Each structure stands twice: as C-alpha cells, then as structure tokens.
Amino acid sequence: MVMSACRAALLLLLCYSITYSYASSLCNRELYAPLWKLRSDQVTILMSGFAERRLPLVRQIARSYSVSPIVHSIYILWGNTSTPWAHLNHTDLVSLGAPVYVVRQETMSLNDRFLPRPYIQTRAVLICDDDITIDVDELKFAFQMWKENDKRIVGFFPRSHEYQLQLKTWIYTIHPDRYSIMLTKLMILATEYLYQYTCAMPHGVKEYIDFNMNCEDIAMNFVVANSTNQGPLLVNGKPRDWGDTRNSINDLSSSALSAKKQHRKNRGDCITAFHQLWEGMPLRYSFGKAINSVEEQVFCEKHGSLLPCNDQSEV
Predict the structure, then answer these.
(1) Is 137 a catalytic residue?
(2) How confident is the model at residue 14, as a pLDDT?
(3) Which residue, of 34, 49, 54, 264, has the greatest Cβ tally within 10 A?
(4) pTM of the complete model
C-alpha cells in the first residue's frame, strides 16, 4: 500500500517535472526573434486541423491563402495525435506562393494552437480553423486594419459577454450592437500574444480549458483585453464557414465543438470561470465595424426603375 502510494507520488512528481520543464523551455525569450526582427509587411497563418475527412478542404484553403502576397507562410497545426504521420506526410499540399507546412501537435490540448513558435517570422499571426475561407482581398483588408490597430484582435466572427444580475453569472451571446469577443474561426493578432497566452496567463486557465475541451479562444480575448484595455475590431467581409451547422449539407459540421448541445451555456460557464481566475473582467465592448469601401446609398427613379443614383447603366 505504501509502495503504491510512493509510486503514484513519484509518477505525479515526474509528470509535473516534465510539464514544468516543457513550459519553462517554451517561455525562454531567447528562443524567439525580437520584435524589431519580425516582418510587418506579411502575416503567418496558423490553421488548426483535426478531422482527417477535412484534409481535402484543408488543402483547398491552404492553396487559396498561399497565393496572397501578404502571406509569409502557412502552418497547419494538426491536433489529432492518432492520425498516422505517414498519412499527413503524403497529403498533397500544393502552394501557389507562400510555403505550406504541417506541424503535428504533441498533445490534443486546445491550448497548443497558441503556443509561441520560434519559426514565426512576422509580427502578426492569422489564427483560423480548417473550415473557413475568405477572399484574398478581404484578407488583405483585414491585415491592413490590424496594422492600424496592432494591439487589438481583428476578425470576422464577433460574440459578446453579458452579465445576468438575477443569476449572478456571465453568459455568452450574440448582441445586435456590440461585441467583446472575436472567435478564432479567423482572426489576426500580434505574435506576442502567443507568448503571453502560454507564459503569463493566470494559473488555472489552461487547466480549465484542457478539462472542458473548450474556450481557448475566449481566453485569448481575455489575454488581449487585459493587456490593452480595448475590445476587438470587427471587419466587414463574407467568410465561408463550411463547418456551420446551418449549411444544408452538413457533413463537415458534425465534428465542430459548436455543434454540441448546450454550447452557449458551456461558453458562459467559461467566462464566469475566467472572470474568477483573472480576478476581474478585462473584456471590453466594441461597437463599430471596419468596411473597405463607402458607397452612396441614395436611390433615384431612372426611366421607371428605382436604382442607385450613381448607377450609370442604361435601362
């Protein structure tokens, strides 16, 4: 009995030592290039992948992003540790410009998508899922908005937090005129926040995420808002979400975390837990949207038809 307890204690100590050593090495600043050496004219894409049946879509998305001149490199962070390496190694990743790499994650932790990585050579990273596509012009505009707001998260998928006085708890919601959370479906943020997430978050946050297999994106929003006292920035665009359960053909959506029941309640529980772990609420509301063009919205009668007044076409 005593020997069993000793073995268990020794194993726990060994696991703690390995985890601590791994985390300590990740947080060694000397591993990463200083800010002044990082490129500001391009962005590194970190795309999370897990489901093997999505590999054809992953190839398509990587190829579409690689053509953009603002993309420095694309890393597919493969989180399914049971996928044979040979299967990933033989995945045909065709690039039309920026190089594409597959990085097999060491664990299935959702926190790993935000690990600082020595090979990142840009000041900004684009975090995205393996089921989101956007037009390269929209990508370019979003990156331009980030360069003008480089302390904030810039993205296309806003959500909000809200406090319920009666229940004395936080809820996760979509609000019609404000937002405080940007989803990692597709967002751009400073590379520095990867280090802050991994090495400077309050103790217990990453453990909560690992236990619940959810909310790493909300935690990153906490990290950025806590650092800047600012909310994220929503960019106008028309991203294609292949994994959305509202698609009429939903063969790509069944594996999404958001497809599970009580998703919003679980996310609200995350906000409540993070509020306690941060000992405060750093999330800040934003109210505007960045658009890439301004068009006159006045309509005129032209030859019996109601058309935009600037429309020069013949009726």
Answers:
(1) no
(2) 40
(3) 49
(4) 0.85
